Each structure stands twice: as C-alpha cells, then as structure tokens.
C-alpha cells in the first residue's frame, strides 16, 4: 500500500479520477473514504492528500449540499483521465470495475434518502426528511423537535429505516 515512486503516485491519482468517472454521480467525502478504505486501495492519509491535490488542480470539485461535501470529476479531470488512462494498471481497472457495480447501487439508494436539520432557536430544531425516486421528490416531512440529540437521532434513523418507515406512513394514511 506504500507508494514509492512518482509513477505510483500518479497511478493512484488517476485511479481516483477513474473511480469518480465511473461512479458518474457526486459522492460524499465519507462515501469516497469508505469505498477506498474498504477495498484497500490506499491508506487514509494518502487519500486525503490526493483528494486535496486533485481538487487544487481542478480535476475534481467539492460541493456542499445537505450539510455534506460531495466530490465529482470535472471536465478537466475527464480529459486528463482520457489522455492518461493507459497508465492505470489493467489489474487495478478490472478490480475497480468488479467492485463498482455493487457500490454504485448502494450509493444510489443512499442518495435517494435525505435527512437534515437546522437549529431554529435554543429550544427548537427543524428536521426535514425526504425520499427521492428518479430525481423526483415523492415524500417530504418536517418535524419540530426540542433538542439537537433528537434531531440527530431522527436523521440517523431515517437514513437507516426510510424505506420501511415511508411504507408504514403510506399504509397508515391509506388504511
């Protein structure tokens, strides 16, 4: 996992560009980190350094949305990848392609569930929960709660249980 040469450094950066290109959708910083570390593609510190360098070189962008930071590849990054793709070892490409399908589906599912909260005042938080299908919002609910702890708990539980909870709400309203 240690990188010894400038060629290996370049390969790792190109591999990151390849991953962002193949995901073909913005992915959060934590999703990126989880994917890279879970699949033992590089260590945490190397990943953070490369993400910063790719961002500084404008090969990827970082955009804030729903209190999360999302990465995506830029046109400059795509052009660079196209030009230097042959420098990524075929074994690495095959490995990434093999694990990408499942990971991409998991990310699509998670991107369809939104949970966020804001502090309205010292004793009130507004929690917003959403379900999005085919880029269309199909469910939205706002709740006022009295503590930061409750707001975080509701958001965490919504992210874990949204499909089941959404189904139960619909059934309660229909029956």
Structural class: alpha+beta
Q: Low-confidence segments, ≥5 residues, pLDDT <50?
A: none
Q: How much helix, percentage-wise, in residues?
A: 55-70%
- Overall shape: elongated
Can you tell me about this structure?
By secondary structure, the protein is an alpha+beta fold. The protein has two domains: 6-109, Arc Repressor Mutant, subunit A; 113-174, no CATH class. It is 57% helix and 25% strand. It has six helices and six strands. Strands 1-3-2 form a three-stranded antiparallel β-sheet. Helix 1 crosses helix 4 (75-84) and helix 1 runs parallel beside helix 5 (90-111). The model has no long low-confidence stretch (mean pLDDT 88).
Index terms:
single chain; 175 residues; alpha+beta; Arc Repressor Mutant, subunit A; 2 domains; 3-stranded antiparallel beta sheet; 6 helices; 6 strands; 57% helix; elongated; DUF4364 family protein
């Amino acid at each position: 996992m240690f990188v010894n040469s400038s060629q290996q450094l370049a390969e790792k950066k190109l591999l990151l560009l390849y991953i962002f290109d193949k995901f073909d959708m913005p992915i959060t910083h934590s999703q990126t980190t989880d994917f890279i570390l879970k699949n033992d593609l590089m260590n945490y510190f190397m990943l953070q350094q490369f993400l910063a360098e790719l961002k500084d070189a404008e090969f990827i962008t970082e955009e804030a949305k729903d209190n999360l930071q999302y990465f995506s590849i830029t046109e400059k990054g795509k052009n660079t990848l196209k030009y230097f793709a042959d420098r990524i070892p075929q074994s690495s490409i095959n490995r990434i392609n093999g694990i990408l399908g499942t990971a991409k589906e998991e990310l699509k599912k998670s991107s369809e569930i939104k949970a966020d909260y804001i502090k309205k005042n010292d004793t009130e938080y507004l929690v917003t929960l959403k379900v999005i299908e085919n880029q269309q919002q199909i469910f939205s609910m706002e709740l006022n709660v009295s503590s930061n702890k409750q707001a975080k708990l509701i958001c965490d539980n919504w992210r874990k249980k949204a499909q089941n909870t959404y189904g139960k709400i619909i059934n309660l309203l229909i029956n």
